[in-house]
């Protein structure tokens, strides 16, 4: 057991403790106001109401920053997903041959077919002349498109694509045309 000392030493110890914590703890002072219990209370010389307002503003600013960060993360995540989908579609579209998609040419029943229209008639066949004219129009558009893409000029004839009513003209004389 520790030897007991007098009350004077205990009081001195308490006052030393109070002095050491007073330098680090906020200084409170009270000026009683009966209308509002917080009026007149100061912390480190600032009124309590002003400190409470600063605290509310700080909390509101922190919440706004957190929400902004959340929105930015969501926006970044959705932007990454959109970029990923766009790149996937771009890779698929790069594999597509536009000419084979625009001009589907196939051979069946001893005829060439372009975009589902027969390019000619078989004797005794039931192909319609309108379908044959459409196929000739598709062929004219295809030849004109491929010639332009390859920078090729047809030396003798000029192709005038006009759908089912496409025409051929002599390269030197554009007035005289031949219907396809």
The CATH superfamily of the largest domain is: Autophagy protein 6/Beclin 1
Q: For the record, give the distance between the C-alpha atoms at the N and C termini, rounded to a whole number.
A: 124 Å
- Helix/strand-derived category reads alpha+beta
How many structural units, i.e. domains?
2
CATH topology of the largest domain: Actin-binding Protein, T-fimbrin, domain 1
Give the SSE string. HEEEHHEEEHEEE
Strand order of the largest sheet: 1-2-3
Strand count, sense and barrel status of the largest sheet are: 3 strands, antiparallel
Unreliable residue runs: 1-5
- How large is the radius of gyration? 46 Å
| Number of helical segments with 4 or more residues | 4
Average pLDDT over all residues: 75
Report the CATH architecture of the largest domain: Orthogonal Bundle
User: How many extended strands?
Assistant: 9
Helix share of residues? 40-55%
The CATH class of the largest domain is identified as Mainly Alpha
Strand content: 15-25%
Helix-strand layout with pairing:
Blueprint: H1 7-22, E1 28-29, E2 42-43, E3 46-47, H2 48-94, H3 98-102, E4 105-108, E5 111-114, E6 117-118, H4 129-149, E7 157-160, E8 167-170, E9 177-179
Antiparallel strand pairs: 1-2, 2-3, 4-5, 5-6, 7-8, 8-9
């Amino acid at each position: 057991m520790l030897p007991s000392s007098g009350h004077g030493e205990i009081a001195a110890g308490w006052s030393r403790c109070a002095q050491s914590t007073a330098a680090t703890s906020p200084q409170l002072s009270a000026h009683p106001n009966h209308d509002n219990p917080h009026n007149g209370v100061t912390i480190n010389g600032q009124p309590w109401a002003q400190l409470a307002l600063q605290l509310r503003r700080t909390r509101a600013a922190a919440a706004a920053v957190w929400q902004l960060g959340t929105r930015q993360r969501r926006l970044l995540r959705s932007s990454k997903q959109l970029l990923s989908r766009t790149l996937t579609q771009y890779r698929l579209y790069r594999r597509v041959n536009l000419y084979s998609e625009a001009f589907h040419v196939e051979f069946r029943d001893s005829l060439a077919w372009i975009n589902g229209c027969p390019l000619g008639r078989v004797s005794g066949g039931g192909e319609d002349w309108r379908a044959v004219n459409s196929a000739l129009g598709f062929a004219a558009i295809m030849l004109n498109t491929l010639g332009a893409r390859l920078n090729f000029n047809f030396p003798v004839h000029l192709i005038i694509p006009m759908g089912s009513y496409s025409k051929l003209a002599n390269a030197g004389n554009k007035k005289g045309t031949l219907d396809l």
